[in-house]
Structures are given as C-alpha cells and as structure tokens.
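= Protein in question =
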Amino acid sequence: MSSLTPTALRCEYLVDPLAIERPDPRLSWISTLAEASTRDARQTAYRIVAAANEPDLIAGRALLWDSGRVPSSASEHIHYAGSELASFQRVCWRVQVWDEAGQPTAWSPTAQWAMGIRARAEWQARWIHSPLTPQGTNAPYFRRSFRLDRPVQEARLYATAKGIYLGWLNGKPVSDEQFAPGWTDYKQRILYRCYDVTALLDPAPGIEQVLAAQLNDGWYKGPIGWEGLASRWGGLIELLMILRVVHTDGSVTIIASDENWKTTNSPILASTFLRGETHDAGLESPGWDRAGFADGAWHRANVRSLGEAPALEAHRGPPVRRLEELRPIDRWQQRPGVWIYDLGQNVAGRVRIRITAPAGTTVRIRHGEMVTPARDLYVDNLRSALSTDLYTARGDAEEVWEPRFTFHGFQYVEITGWPGDPGADAVTGIVMGSDCPPAGSFSCSHQLVNQLYANIVRTQRANYFEVPTDCPQRDERMGWTGDAQAYIRTAVCTYDIAAFFTKWLQDLRDSQSPEGCFPNVAPAIPGLGEWMAKGDAAWGDAGTICPLTLWRVYGDRDQLAAMYPAMVRWVDYLHRTAVQDLHVRYHRDGLTVFGDWLQVDCWTPPEVIMTAFFHHSTRLLADAAEILGKTADATRYRELQAKIKLAFIREFVRPDGRVIGKRSEQETQTNYLLALHFDLLPDQLRAPAFERLLACLAERDWHLSTGFVGLPYLMPVLSAMGRTDVAYRLLTTTTYPSWLYPITQGATTIWERWNGWKKEEGPADPSMNSYSHYAYGAVGEWLFTDLAGIDVLEPGFTTIRVRPRLGGGFTHAEATHDCQRGRIRSAWRISGDLVHLEVTIPPNTSARVSVPTTEASSLRESGASWKREVDRSDPAYATVTVGSGTYAFTAAYRAAAAGARG
C-alpha cells in the first residue's frame, strides 16, 4: 500500500474554477500521508488523466489527456498537455502518484475546471445600460424573462460590468460574491466571473424564468481617492451577461444581455464606496427578480455593441465575500436618539440592521474606527469619506437590511433616528475581504505578541480587498505599491495569496508607463497626475520585489516569466534616470518622494533610498534572469548591480562605516538597514555599520524610528547579524514608538502611524491617520521565520528551514504554514534545562532543522539519542537534515550558554 494519498486538487491555484482561459492550465495537488507516523514519504512519479465528463474519466475512455507515468516529484504547476480545449468546455481530471517505494496510490477524487470565453466573438451579447441614468439611480434593476423548451443538463452564467453588479436567477442569488467583477484599469481590461446556475433553473420546460441583475458605479464610476472625483474611467455603467444553457440533447440556448432586457430605478437612491448607501424600502418592488412580475412600466434597456476594446478576461483571483459576522460587545446611548455600538474589532465591511419602525422613518448609520474620550464617534480621519448609510423603513413588523454596494472601515457604528431603543440585536457586523485561503497560524507565550499577530491578520484581511489597498476607511482605498511590497513577505505566511497576486501583478503590468515606470498605485487611476503614475523608490520597486518573493514561496516560474519584460523595463528606466556614470539616483523636480514614509523624528535622504532600491531591483532582475535561463541578461544586470554598489559606497559610505546622504549628516536606522540588507557595504565595513545601527537604536532608548521603507528589514538584519536579543527587545517594547504600543492603546489592527492614538494626547494628524494599515505589520514575517523558525530554503518550500531563535524570556512558540505541498509545523518550548522542538514536515519535501543547543551530544528525537549526522557549523544549534514526517526533538538548553546574541 502506498504511503501517500493525493488530495486538494487545484487548477491555476483555484478549486474547480469555471473560467480558465489559458490553453495549458496548470494543475496542482497535495500528497497527504496514509498514516500519520510515516516518515520520508515522497512522490517519485505521477499520472494525470482528463476527460470531458466524470463517467468517461472513471472508465478511462475518450480521454482528453493521459500523461502516462511521469517520473517526477513535482506536484504543482503541471501544464495540461492534452487535446485542444474549446471555450466553455468542461474538463474532469484526477491524479495518481507513486511513493518513495514505487507503490502507486489509488486515484484521487475527481476535480474539474471549465474553459472560459477564449474568443471575443463568442461573447454573443451586448452592453446594456439604463436610459434613466445618470438622471436616475446609480443602482438600476435589470430583468429578462425567458422560457426553455427542453430539459437542462447544465447552465453557466458569464457576467461582467463597467461598474459592479449582483445577479439573481428566479429570485435566488447566482453567487455569494460581492463587488463583482472586480477592479482593474478598465481602459486596459475588464474581468468577468462565471457561475454554475444549473440548480437555480426550473427544470420544467415552458416555465417562465427570470434572469435579473442590479448594477452600481463601483470603482468604475464612483469616487475613488482623496480628491473624491468620480467617473475616473467612464460616465456610463453597463452590464454584460450570457446565460449559456446546455440541454440534455446537447443543444445550447443563449440568454444574453440585449434589447430584450428591461430596466428601472431601484430603491437604492445612491451608493458609493466612500459616501455610503441610501435605500428607501418604500420604493421596493417585491418579486421584481421572479416570474410573474408585472414589468409593463419598466423601460427597454439601451444597447451598445461589444466593441474591440478593452480586453475581456476571466478573473483569476479570489472574489470578495462576507467572511464573518460580529455581534456588538458593547453599546450605549450617547445622547437622546443617538446610539453607538462597538463591534470589538476594526474591520472592513458593513452592518446589517434589524428594525421595526413606522413607514418613512429614516435611520442614519455612520461608521468610525475610534470613539473620542467623550465616547462620540470619531470620524475626522475619514477626511471626505462620509461612510454613512441611510435606510428608510417601509413599516413592516420587522425589516432586515444590509447595504449591497458599499463597504466601510470601522469598529464603531453610530445609529441615529431609530424610534426608541434599537436593542442589542439590532446591529450585526459583516466582515468582508478577498476570500484568500488561510495559510498560517502563530502563538507564543507573550500575550501582547499574540494580539499583535491577530492584529496583523485582521489588517491584512481588511485590506486585501480585490487589490492590496492601503486602508479601507478614508477617501483613498487604493492599491499602493509601496505598502504591497513592504508587507508581502508577511502576507505569504498568513494567507495563500498566489491567485490574489496573479491578478494584481497583471494590474501592475497594465499600469506601467510607456517608458517603463511602475506607478505608486495599481490599478493606475486616471486623473491623479504624473507624480502618481511614476512610482517612487520602494513603491515602483514592487514590480521586482513582489514577483521574486512569490517565486521563492510558490515556485511559480510562469508568473515570474510573465513579469520579466516589465521588470526589465523598470530597471532600464531606473538606469536611464540615474546620474549617468555615477549610477546614483536623485530626486527629480516635479515628482513626489515619499522617502521612508512616516519615519519618526528623522529624515532618511531620498538619494540613499533611491540608489539602494535601484541596486535591489537590479539584483532581483539578475536573479530572475538566472532563474529563467536568460544568461546574457543575467550577466548584464549583475555588472550593473556591481556598479551601483560601488557608486553607493563612494557616495554614501564613510571610511568608518557611517552611512549618510549628500544633503544630511543625520544617521538613521533606515540608512543602515538598507545598506546591510541590500549588501551595499564592503565586507570590512559591515560590522562597523551594524554597530552604528545599534547606536541609532540605543540613542532612542531601544525604540525603532523606521517608516514603511526601512521597517521590513529591521528584524531580519538584527537576526542575520547575531543580535536576536535586540530583536526581542524591540518586539516586546510597549512604549512609543513600538509594535506593542498601539495595543496598549486598544488597537485591534495595525495603525498607519506609530502614534495614531495616544490616550494622553488623543489622535494624531487626522489628514493621514488610518487605524487599519498593514505596512508596519511586516514584522509578522519574523514571527514565522525567526521566532517560530519556519522559512523556505528552496523555491516552493521543496526544502524547508526550521530554525527558531529563542530569547526575550519567551517560553514557547508555535506556528504552522500551509505550503503548496502541505502543512509545516514548528513548536518549541523550554522546560527546565531542556528545549523541546516538535516539527512536522509535509510529504514530498525535506528540511534542515536546527535545534537550539550548544551541546549537540544531548540531542534526542522521540526519546532516543540522535545517531545521524549533526551539522555544528553554528555552535548555537545542532542542525540535522530530515525527510517528511513528525519529529520530537529535545536537547540541553541554557539561555546564558546559548548566548543572548543567538
């Protein structure tokens, strides 16, 4: 019997996707253990078979593809290589693997994918819009009544919009997705979604059925950004739909958006992301989305041709969904007629209300992240975003309402206009975000650090909202590239973001300027000006940092290859705009330089940051060239990298190891972090420069002062240079500025500013003060890679490193990470003079496990002395190489002997 079982089959990172457009989609699976006690289990071969339906697949007949037995350990990114696939085609597939003993497994459960609409001509539909807009509602209803004359085998709905939409079939939602089809640079491409709606159709031939939709401005037309300007991409919201019904006899019926659709205004009088939603229930039309509804007073939809642009493509990332519901933990009457509810945590989403009120009663619902010391709702930091929903009751015994086309960032909800006491159950918080699969967990013996981790995860969930945004509450909510790159190494620890970033990296490529400049935000937003289109150092560099980070974690060569031409254009742009012959980059007039954004009481010179990231991006590009086999490019960019390093040393590094800019003699933590982490120093000056970094920390009584740019490198540099003790000291500091200080002030998310709110002073500058901003949560990487000890050694975690760095008085820590080959676990605890390290390594991988001990002879595993080779190259650890399985190590541990600097 085989030691393995293939499970968790995916296509293009997705489970049973319905709209795949590439002709050779990539297939993946995880091999789990048949018995938990098995060790050294690995895949030695695989076989994939695919067919048009499951009966043929199981019978092994009419196969679209049979890979045959392929000797390989690969279990991800396997390209389909069978018969050519047509649009709409369904493909069922399964996999069998062979283990380390050459024993085959049983076949996996069947998975499937379906092809999307691969040719524009196959969109047998036209854009439709309401003749009442823009004079009428910005959320019009659309409906199409139809009848089917034959039994149905399957039905799929393909839908998109210039705007956002919701869909219903016979009165039932076609999906639980929100804000579909998503956000792109709509001049470049518009995405569509596909839904299996077979179960929503009435199977009886000849019965009236209704396909319905509601449309809204969304990102396409609604106000976006701090200027609050609307119609960034267009002034007319439109709908495009195809209901494709396959009958049992093989024939096909198409119900498409065309002149046969009817439309009218809805009870949503206004709805935008920044301002909120206004709904008058007295204007509702019960049954409008079902058969039998009298739509004689409705208008014919206006129709426009599909046209040749922009591109129409299937969405490749996870949808936004409702992720959780929250009950208030507290409420109070602030003044007569004004009630405030506390949900207990800062989230992105909206609220659902349950109300009994006379017809015509209007309830105002305002959202905020904080309350003032007087317990009033604090909204100053929202700037021009109103974040206010209005509901006018129809007078029923009980009414339940939730907005449809808006979301807010908030913890507190203010209710005004409610007759009497709303009651404790009147408000339910709806948490929303892109539905990325969870991929990590962390806990330790320090409860404030546990809260820090929870805040990191919560903030990522609130801001991975179709794109990686900066914040979910104020008049901004854009895909800031600098924030994305600063945080991505933490993001991959906590969630599976492979599909999410597949989509966003396309946004990034679409937003690149003709001269090669990546922007400060992606999708790029029309009308923000040249300074936003031309990315600053550490912002535009997301175009190199993110792809290489994803390569390291997921081993996705195709994704790296797709980004490579854009990476070349970016680095070539940086080279052209550098000071020629000097290879140094300086600020150019007319363009904003963010610098080390929100650094504390210091100023890191822009030329240091710009030149350091010029070097870093060039090095990453050379890495990518080597990975992709582009040897000439690799040589060229390695030579450029070397020249930039020499220029950095010449311009900014002093003979005593100080790193300072041309226009300032001030030493900053970020100066040294960039120089050390990016390898911009001569070997003999690394130690002196590091001592200067420690001096900078000591001068601030061991508090950090970095902004967004320097912070991701602070803890890794301290660990790499052997000062884990300092890292723990910074991690556990509770006074300002520090990671734990906001928690002492009540934070449930990561703040944009270290001093976002001080109990003794109140809020910081409200013009730039988000309480849900993930950049400073970049310390989460260190919690996984160093405190718990899980890191990647070979791309895709095919080889794993487990090396916890103990210290800080911590007595235990545990983390898990779900890589593409299964779950990794590291759990350590100190018991007396022993350290216990439990490790789980998934099948089809291996690991280098470093047990913290200075006495290698004391190393035991599952109670027995370790008889295999031990690497003692680092005297603070006993390092062993293991295959898959679960291991329980113990060893002698004496904190003083191990060294506070370990």
Summary: The radius of gyration is 29 Å.
